[in-house]
Known about the structure:
By secondary structure, the chain is mainly α. Helix content is 78%, strand content 0%.
Amino acid sequence: MTADRLDITSLVAGVVVIALGALLLLDRVGAVDIGFGALAPALVGTVGAILLASGLSRGAEQR
């Protein structure tokens, strides 16, 4: 990887993990009330977004 090329997998993973952390922080301070019913899909979505970005970036490298 060169310094000029953006690693889309790392970018997506970072943004998604930060968003999930912000959501958990808002729950902790009482700004929002998040139960397991809302947290489980958010965790699955986090993993899915990272895997999707990883798969798409590998496909672009092979072309």
